[in-house]
Specification:
4-stranded antiparallel β-sheet; 6 helices; Dna Ligase, domain 1
Amino acid sequence: MEDRLTDDERRVLLRVARQAVSEAVNRQRRLPLNLSEFSQRLQEPGATFVTITSRKGALRGCIGALEPNLPLVEDVREHAISAALEDFRFAPVQPAEIDDIQIEISRLTLPQPLEYDGPVALLDKLRPHIDGVILTDGVHRATFLPQVWKKLPDKSAFLENLCQKMGVPPDTWRRKKLRVLTYQVEEFHEDK
C-alpha cells in the first residue's frame, strides 16, 4: 500500500477502536465523533477490518467493509464495535475481557478484479501474503484478509476454505469461474 498512515494516525485509530469497544461492551452512551479533531486522511472515506483477539491469539471477532463508505476513523469505530459484539461466530466480548483483548486494524485498498482463465491460471495469479481475496458466486461472497495466508499458505487450501466461508462446496473454484477480486492491506495492531 503506497499511501501509508503515519505512526500517529495509527495510534489514533487504535485508541478510537479501543475506546469504542470499551464503551460498547460496558453499554456506555456513544457520543458522535467530531471529525474536525482528526487529520484530513482520517476524515477521508476508508475501508477497514477490525480484528479482536485474546492475548493468547484466539480470534474473538473480525468485521469490516470491502469498500469505503464512511470516514476512515468512523469506519474503524463502527467495525470495532461490530467485531466485539456482532460477529455471529463468537459470543460478545464481555467487560471482564477488555484488558485481555488485542485490537488489529487492516486498512484496505480498493478491490481490483483478477482476470484468469481456469483454475490453474487462478492459482498462478494469486500472491500469498500480499493479496486479500474476495470470491463471489451469485449471491454468495466471502473474503480472506492477506493475514489468512499465514494459516493457509497452500493456494488450493486457501481457496477451498474461502469457498466454504462463502457457503458453497470447497471445490467450487475448480468447477466454475467465480468473480475474483484482490486487495492489499496496511495492517497494524496494539503493542500489548
